[in-house]
Design brief:
Blueprint: H1 17-31, H2 37-46, H3 55-62, H4 70-84, H5 108-121
Helix pairs in contact: 1-4, 1-5, 2-3, 2-4, 4-5
């Protein structure tokens, strides 16, 4: 009989994002009846949208020795869910009589993906990832300033080269009169952009 895997102890896999990811995988592994790794590996290659995962990779994921690409982790989840006859895109903790509480609306896949991302980023549970810096606002001056276009014989009512009846306010290349500055916007500046 093949040896069944056990959840690594806290002395082997310390508390943190990786342990949380492995613990969630173990929820599905246990619910599937702790199937042999070759059986899980076979299912990953035969299920819809297959992504073949080796039994060694599965063992390493379930013991916390690796954090693989999302496609591999997702394939393992789908195989374990298939063995449970469970939808990976179903609610993680279904409520009786379809009465869902708002405290955990995540699906199995969404929750596992969040744990996977937290493990990759090294984030503790509940810790928000750092937000990227905001792009600097572009001034509506300099090269993007309004330059009146010469009237065109082709169209006087806003066709190609003509003057549009109402140019978009945020289009610095629009032809026609520039939008009037409001109290909220800075308007156009005569300063060069550099």
């Amino acid at each position: 009989m093949p040896r069944m895997l056990r959840m690594p102890g806290k002395d082997v896999l310390r508390p943190g994002p990786k342990r949380d990811l492995v613990a969630e995988l173990y929820v599905h592994y246990r619910e599937a009846g702790r199937p042999p790794l070759p059986q899980i590996a076979e299912i990953t290659g035969t299920m819809p949208n297959p992504h073949k995962v080796s039994r060694e990779t599965i063992r390493r994921l379930l013991t916390g020795q690796t954090t693989s690409q999302w496609a591999v982790v997702d394939a393992l989840l789908r195989a374990l869910c298939q063995l449970q006859d469970r939808d990976p895109d179903g609610r993680r903790w279904p409520e009786p009589d379809d009465q869902y509480e708002e405290d955990d609306p995540a699906t199995c896949r969404e929750y596992l993906r969040q744990l996977w991302n937290d493990d990759i980023d090294g984030l503790e549970p509940g810790e928000a990832p750092a937000t990227p810096p905001a792009a600097p606002a572009q001034a509506a001056s300099g090269w993007g300033s309004h330059v009146p276009a010469a009237p065109s014989a082709r169209s006087a009512s806003g066709g190609w080269g003509g003057t549009p009846s109402s140019p978009p306010a945020d289009d610095p290349w629009a032809t026609g009169p520039p939008p009037q500055p409001s109290t909220q916007s800075r308007g156009y500046s005569d300063e060069p952009p550099f």
